[in-house]
Amino acid sequence: MSQEFANRLIHLRGQQNLTQQELGEAAGVSPSQISRYESGLAMPRKTVMRKLADILGISTEALSGSPKTKKLTIDLPPEISTHVNQVVEETGKTFEEVISEMIELGIRKFAEDPEFAAKVAKGIEARRQADSKK
Questions:
Q1: What are 49-99's pLDDT values in tens digits?
Q2: What is each CA distance from 60 to 28, 31, 124, 129, in whole angstroms?
């Protein structure tokens, strides 16, 4: 099975201050099954993986370590980079994990809140126009 997944699950469960019992109940599996996941002896089915990811606040791809991710290179303004580095230090996650989760949360927010999406789109357009005048 995947020791990388097992380690990630242990880390994320600890961050949420959840016991194996609590995580199992929330995901609909036994605490002993959570133990098997965390020891690398078993991998959850897709439906359980989705539940675990939702409970832990990350994508199923990030939780499972799925290779479906694509590499992206971007230049971040210093204030954003500083903020991301603070989150990295506080959570123990990698820079890439924090950025990925921030993007995912933003995408969810867009889908859930059309007003938010419209405001962001206006802000992006205003920034583009300002940048084109430089």
A1: 999 999 998 888 888 876 655 677 888 889 999 999 999 899 888 888 888
A2: 16, 20, 29, 37
The distance of Cα 114 from the centroid of its chain, to the nearest Å, equals: 22
d(CA 125, CA 34): 46
Domain endpoint, select from 20, 42, 64: 64
Give residue 55's domain range: 3-64
How does DSSP assign 52-121, residue by residue?
HHHHHTS-HHHHHT-TT------PPPHHHHHHHHHHHHHH---HHHHHHHHHHHHHHHHHH-HHHHHHHH
How many angstroms separate the CA atoms of 94 and 73, rounded? Answer: 15
13 and 53 share one domain = yes
Q: Are residues 82 and 32 in the same domain?
A: no
What digits encode the pLDDT tens for the residues 10-35? 999 999 999 999 999 999 999 999 99
Kindly state whether residue 23 falls inside one of the protein's structural domains: yes
